[in-house]
Amino acid sequence: MALTRWEPFREIERFEPLRGFERWDPLQEIDTLQRQMNRLFERLIPTTDGGESRGLVFVPVAELRETDDAIDLSLELPGLEAKDIDVEVTPDSVVINGERKSEARTEDQGVIRSEFRYGKFQRVIPLPAMVQNDQVQAEYKNGILHLSLPKAESEKHKAVKVNLG
Length: 165
Prior knowledge:
- By secondary structure, the protein is of the alpha+beta class.
- The chain has helices at 8-14, 26-44, 153-156, and strands spanning 62-66, 70-76, 85-90, 93-100, 119-126, 137-141, 144-150.
- Among the domains are: 23-56; 62-101 and 118-156, Sandwich (Immunoglobulin-like), CATH 2.60.40.
């Protein structure tokens, strides 16, 4: 018994193309995927009025810790000064606004490449419990903003009844 190599597309080429069937082209699939990914990234990257790309928006990262008496919130805001940061606290959320300003400098020789992100940013952080927004303590040191948000009295002694039936 002789073994022959099976080549499925060679058999189709001998006959007229069957109606309703198309040959699968993996390179065309990759090209389609690449175009879709490009469109996705174009939507994510904000542009100026002239259509010029500014880069991805800066969003400060946060760390939230909850204790029985307070909520401790830390945000990483490197390269900013305290005067460039605006913090607003409501009983159920914290809003941080700021602006990272670019330095105006010119060089006569060479090319300057900057990957820093400049511009305005905003971050809204919902809180897991109600806080006394008039008792907030803040400290900004070495690019880290620390907020101590004391819980409202009603939240400190809050008990939840669990139905077992």
